[in-house]
Amino acid sequence: MGDRYVLLGLASARSEWFRAVAHWCNGASIPAEFVKCLSPAQVLAQLAGGRRFSAVLVDGAAPGFDRDLLDAAGRAHTPVLAVGAEVALPVAAVLTPGFGPDHLLDALASHAAPVGPVDAAVLDPVAVPEGPRWAGRVIAVCGPGGTGASTVAIAVAQALSGRVLLADLKLHAEQAMLHDGRDVVPGVQELVEAHRTRTAPPEEVQRLAYRVEERGYDLLLGLRQAGAWPALRPRAFEAAFAALRSGWHTVVCDVDAEVEGERECGSADVEDRNVMARTALAQAGLVLVIGLPGLKGTHGLVRVVNELVAFGIDPAAVVPVVNRAPRSPRAKAELAAAVAGLTRSPLAGLVFLPERRVDDLLRDGGRLPPVLTAPLAAIADAVAAPPVPRRRGRRWGEPERIVPGSLGTLG
User: Fold this and answer.
1) Hey, is 306 helix, strand or coil?
2) pTM, to two decimals
3) What proportions of the chain, in percent to the nearest 5, are helix, strand and coil?
């Protein structure tokens, strides 16, 4: 068999164009083979199966047609052609409903490649849509449970000037409780849903945040329950996070200290579960790791710092913060020496926050005392410019996972 197009289709079984394309292929009106899929899961399985496809034809209104499906097609080096009157996602081409075989062949000739009897996979890099021209800085606050990291995140947001957003990106979100929030909608789930198939305008994104007038920042509420994380598709969340950076000068992220992904533990589900923390920490110019004094507190602080550095965060951007620190200069010096001796890389410094009762202030919506905010403001002001998102490098000699289909396949 000579060269021909191999098309992957996604639409409802009753779609007119879906049936028409199948008829053209079966009747040899166009030199193509058509593989019909009725769900996004079938499309993802086909793309991950190693077979080479010329293009994906998808109904622009099909459920599940979103950024993550586009990302899967991009990783398989397969262009996406959408059928619909209005398609907001960055696809290779848009076909109007009622298109004919000539229109389809013209689009394929411009954007797709025929598949021969034996055709190696194309290994050229896939073009990545250009991000926003301007992006605000990101400050991430995390730590082992029970260290007061969420309260410190509030103190950081209060201490900063300009347009500041405090984003609750924890699986077990607590900022609504700490701000005595009566409403839990909208929040991060609505933000991500707004970016699943399009890019929400800035005014729509800003309406999803609540103004905390007394402390001078905006608040994005988190998940309503931890089990809602599967709704946060990775590419949609990345687009939503980029929108946050475009709308505020500084985004303070209250995140978990869990950064395991498929590379670390072999589970794609774990990586998706940790997408909020992994995305925020990878783009943060400053990462505050909150710990407590004492044997267990020091152990937890050092463990998180070492895990973040192993994840790929620049040690110069990581600052340990000892909450409820002792008053004694000798005890502080011993803590500093212990942290410095147990961390694997030299860090930017160490911050001590004194013990203060803030429950009443949090309940009443009052401002936190300067003794908590001033040291954090001094550290945060040292972050001059937002960094380029980092990707973990691979040491020479380490095994690297081979993605199915990346080495070439039979057509």
Assistant:
1) helix
2) 0.77
3) 40, 20, 45
Task: Confirm if 3 and 114 have CB atoms less than 8 A apart.
Answer: yes
Angle at 194 between CA 192 and CA 196, to 5 degrees: 70
* Pairing state between β 118-119 and 409-410: antiparallel
With 0-12 / 13-18 / 19 or more C-beta atoms within 10 angstroms meaning exposed / middle / buried, residue 181 is middle
Q: Which two tokens stand for residue 393?
A: 């490098």
Q: Put the strands of the sheet holding 217-220 in their side by side order.
A: 210-212, 217-220, 164-169, 250-255, 137-142, 286-291, 318-325, 351-354
The string of pLDDT tens digits covering residues 220-279 is 999 999 999 998 999 999 999 999 999 999 999 999 999 999 888 888 899 999 999 999
Interstrand relation of 137-142 and 217-220 (parallel, antiparallel or unpaired): unpaired
Amino acid type, 274: N
- For the stretch 314-334, pLDDT in tens is 999 999 999 999 999 999 999
Q: How would DSSP label each residue in 190-221?
A: HHHHHTSSS---HHHHHHTSEEETTTTEEEE-
Of 99, 36, 91, residue with least CA distance to 69: 91
Helix (H) or strand (E) run with residue 353 in it: strand 351-354
